[in-house]
Amino acid sequence: MYEFLQYQVRDAMTVDPIAVSPKTKLSEIEELFETHDFNGVPVVDDQLRLLGVLTKFDLLRAFSLDSHAMVPHYDEIMEQTADTVMTRNPVSVGPQMPLSRLLQKLVDMRTKSLPVVENNRLVGVIAREDVLKALRRAAIRHEIPVHQDA
């Protein structure tokens, strides 16, 4: 497990992740979620600067009602754009952050993934699954083989 302590976010992140523009329709984002089994997607501008994230929770929030709202049609809501429901100024991490610190951040925040930003540009996404794979990889590399006598 000592090897895990040497890992950084860059060692486990998904590089050049799928991202959407703020004007991407919610219907397209829902399709991305379905096709790729994503729980969220970064929202970026033309220079790949992170503007926000849009999660399945944010998508559900688009359908929430207050006491003054009429129930909008599904198709109307799905025509809205990412910038209408995305979470702005999301928490992000740098690629050089130790994975051990990231692990604690994911646990503390109870989040599934975080965008990875370097020089104000989205360079990756790191998810719970990526951290678990890194833990497993570190553990496998340091297993001591058991020799059995014949």
Which short descriptors sum up this protein?
150 residues, elongated, 6 strands, 6 helices, 3-stranded antiparallel β-sheet, CBS-domain, alpha+beta
- What's the main sheet like? 3 strands, antiparallel
β-sheet strand percentage: 15-25%
Helix content: 25-40%
Q: Average pLDDT value?
A: 90
Termini separation (Å)? 31 Å
Total of DSSP H or I helical runs spanning 4+ residues: 6
Strand order within the widest beta sheet: 1-6-5
The CATH topology label is CBS-domain
Radius of gyration equals 19 Å
What shape does the CA trace take? elongated
Number-wise, the strands total 6
How many structural domains can be distinguished in the coordinates?
1
Q: What is the C-level CATH assignment? A: Alpha Beta
List low-pLDDT spans.
Answer: none
The CATH superfamily is: CBS-domain
Which class do the helix and strand fractions yield? alpha+beta
Description:
- The chain has 150 residues and is α+β, with helices and mostly antiparallel strands.
- It has a single domain (2-141), classed as Roll (CBS-domain).
- Helices cover 34% and strands 19% of the residues.
- It has six helices and six strands.
- The chain has helices spanning 26-36, 56-61, 74-78, 82-85, 99-109, 128-141, and strands at 14-15, 40-44, 50-55, 87-88, 113-118, 121-127.
- The strands form two sheets. A three-stranded antiparallel β-sheet has the order 1-6-5.
- The two termini are 31 Å apart.
- The model has no long low-confidence stretch (mean pLDDT 90).
